[in-house]
Design a protein that fits this description.
Elements lengths: L2 H34 L4 H6 L3 H24 L3 H25 L3 H6 L3 H23 L1
Length: 137
């Protein structure tokens, strides 16, 4: 066989394992985020609430950015799991901090107040970038 095809076939299982584990962790993180928020963003988004869309979209990106850094720096699947769990916990904690700082955040999101959603989105993305840099070394 051709060398590049041999390389592809030998590395494909590792690639699929890394992507699969990372995507599974992303889905788990999104479900955890949805569970800890006092409002249901997906239902609000379906009802046309833009603030909920901003909050949920930034949460997804905020979870994905550090997970991508974990995957990029990993040498094994367990690396992704260990650092990915740490990153997800920190991201969920960032939401909790913003929710405490903006006491009426749940009401603001439910009322489609985009200002509160933008503050939440900014914090989530900023924390994601810091975590990703820390994971990336």
């Amino acid at each position: 066989m051709m060398p590049f095809l041999d390389n592809l076939l030998s590395s494909l299982p590792v690639f699929l394992a890394h992507v699969g584990v990372t995507l599974a962790m992303l889905v788990a993180g999104i479900l955890a985020y949805e569970a800890i928020t006092p409002y249901r963003e997906l239902a609000l988004v379906r009802a046309g609430n833009s603030a909920a869309g901003i909050a949920l979209g930034s949460a997804i990106l905020g979870l994905a950015i550090p997970l991508a850094a974990c995957m990029a720096r990993s040498v094994a699947v367990w690396d992704i799991v260990v650092w990915g769990v740490a990153a997800l916990v920190l991201q969920l904690a960032a939401f909790a901090v913003v929710a405490v700082a903006l006491r009426r955040l749940p009401d603001a999101i439910a009322k489609d107040e985009k200002g509160a959603a933008c503050v939440l989105a900014s914090v989530q993305l900023a924390v994601a970038l810091v975590i990703a840099a820390a994971v990336g070394g």
